[in-house]
Amino acid sequence: MLLILCSSIFLITTLMGWGKLMENIFGKTLSGISGKILTGIFSTGLIFTLLSFFIPLNLYVEIPTILIGLFYFFKDKLYLEYFRFSKKDSIILGILATVILFSASFYPFILDHFGYYVPTIKWLTEYGLIKGISDLDLILGQMSVWHILQAGFSNFADPFFKLNAVLLIVYGLYIVENKSWIQLIFIPILLIFSQSPSPDLPVIIFSLIVLNEILSGNRNISFLFAFSVFTFATKPTVIWLPIFILLYSIFISKFDYKKLIFGSLVFLLFIAKNIWTFGYPVFPFAIFDLGISWKSNPELLKASSEFALIKTFDEQYSYAEIVKFSWFDHIKNWLSLKGMKSMINILFIFSLIGFIIFSIIKKNKIISLICISILIKSILVLFFSAQYRFFIDVFFVVSFVLFFEYLNKKNAVLISSSLIFTVAVIFSFPNFIQKFIPSFQVGRFMKPFEKKQILSPSHYQYNQYNSYKVGGLKFNVSKKYPFNFDTPVPAISVNYIFDYRKKQIFPQPIDKNNLKKGFIWKKLNAEEKKELDKTIELIKKSYQ
Question: Which ranges in 53-132 belong to alpha helices (H)?
Answer without folding.
Answer: 59-75, 87-104, 112, 118-126
